[in-house]
Design a protein that fits this description.
Length: 328
């Protein structure tokens, strides 16, 4: 699939014009820190729970380990898992095993530690992750991001919010390709065509999961390669008004960086991040494993499900590792 032709090269002025169209600053009050999660009502959650009919569950997380997607130059190391107490600690020491048990009053245990960049594997980008011209979502100054964490827009604001109706948009299946080409910018026409092909609608308060086939490509070659930081398909500038008009609560992809890489704007890095996080206040999920889910949706003909993916309650955190669940 070839990259879409452009009439002209987008620039910082394109970003500013789109920002004025999709900004949610002040929409839910001057103190708002959760952005588009305001679209999810209690009634939406109740209706989403009615989608659970079989109890079949899918984890959408990749493993958190040293074999993860990060590589030198990507800006983050992979998770490091260490044991602080293990079984061998109870096999060593003076005396017989029985004598050692008596000394410890028979208690034996294991314990461990994780050194974990919060955005190194399946994760949410919180609303403090990206700012533009020294402003965060809802107009807060970048000064609120300090060495001790985010004083506004922390991902911890959403610990009880990311639950509701999930919708999978499987673009490769709808567009009849194995996977979207690296660099391909997903636009409104692509999203609409996928909704029609899958006979599914996207509405207010939905969490939209966009499959590009990027993880399938990784598994087919048995190598992460340049998945982290390299050219990739993803959301394009043309998708931004679509997400705004549909009042979605969150969006996630199977890519390292939710947007098309390289950026469509040569003079602005990651313009879609700027528009969705800073101006729209939209939570962004990255590195979601959508392969098994996509197979089930294709077999069942159902592309909607109950979705839950709470961030960890880490004070001042910018992003959070998650284990998202799709439940049918």
């Amino acid at each position: 699939m070839a990259k879409k032709a452009e009439d002209s090269t987008p620039s910082i002025e394109t970003v500013r014009a789109l920002a004025s169209q999709v900004s949610n600053w002040g929409r839910w009050g001057s103190d708002d820190q959760i952005g588009t999660l305001n679209h999810v009502t209690s009634q939406d959650v109740v209706r989403a729970a009615e989608l659970i009919r079989t109890g079949k569950r899918f984890s959408l997380s990749i493993p958190f380990d040293e074999n993860g997607p990060q590589r030198p130059g990507s800006g983050r190391p992979n998770p490091i898992h260490l044991m602080s107490v293990d079984g061998r600690d109870f096999m060593s020491g003076a005396g017989t095993p029985e004598q050692r048990d008596i000394r410890r009053r028979y208690l034996q245990n294991a314990d461990d530690i994780v050194i974990l960049p919060l955005q190194s594997a399946t994760q949410w980008d919180g609303l403090a992750h990206v700012f533009f011209e020294q402003r965060l979502y809802n107009g807060y100054s970048a000064d609120f991001i300090t060495s001790s964490g985010a004083k506004r827009n922390s991902v911890a604001q959403a610990v009880d919010r990311i639950v509701g109706r999930g919708v999978l948009l499987d673009l490769p299946k709808a567009l009849n390709v194995p996977a979207l080409d690296p660099g391909y910018p997903i636009g409104a026409d692509d999203l609409d065509a996928t909704c029609r092909a899958q006979n599914v609608h996207v509405g207010p308060g939905d969490f939209v999961l966009v499959r590009t086939g990027a993880l399938k490509r990784v598994r087919d070659r048995s190598d992460w390669g340049d998945y982290a930081g390299g050219p990739a398909p993803g959301l394009g500038l043309d998708s931004v008004p679509w997400l705004y008009q549909h009042n979605v609560a969150g969006v996630a992809t199977d890519t390292w960086d939710i947007e098309a890489r390289p950026s469509e704007t040569p003079d602005v890095a990651q313009p879609v991040h700027i528009l969705l996080l800073t101006f729209m206040g939209l939570y962004l999920g990255e590195i979601f494993d959508l392969e098994e889910l996509a197979q089930h949706c294709a077999r069942s003909g159902r592309y909607e499900f109950f979705f839950v993916a709470q961030p960890l309650n880490i004070t001042g955190a910018i992003g959070s590792p998650i284990n998202p669940l799709a439940i049918f």
